[in-house]
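FORM 7B: Structural annotation worksheet

SECTION A. Query
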Amino acid sequence: MNLSAGKWLGLRRLADESGLFKIEAVDQRLPIQNEIKS
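SECTION B. Predicted structure
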């Protein structure tokens, strides 16, 4: 998957120091999926 630098940094901000996402899927699932798809 190819991600721009900005999208990569945005996704990294949602992850903790070990790279695990710390989000609530109920509230964030669609925005995260749309970000990854675009």
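SECTION C. Observations
The chain has two helices and no strands. Helices lie at 5-13, 25-37.

SECTION D. Sign-off
Analyst initials: ____
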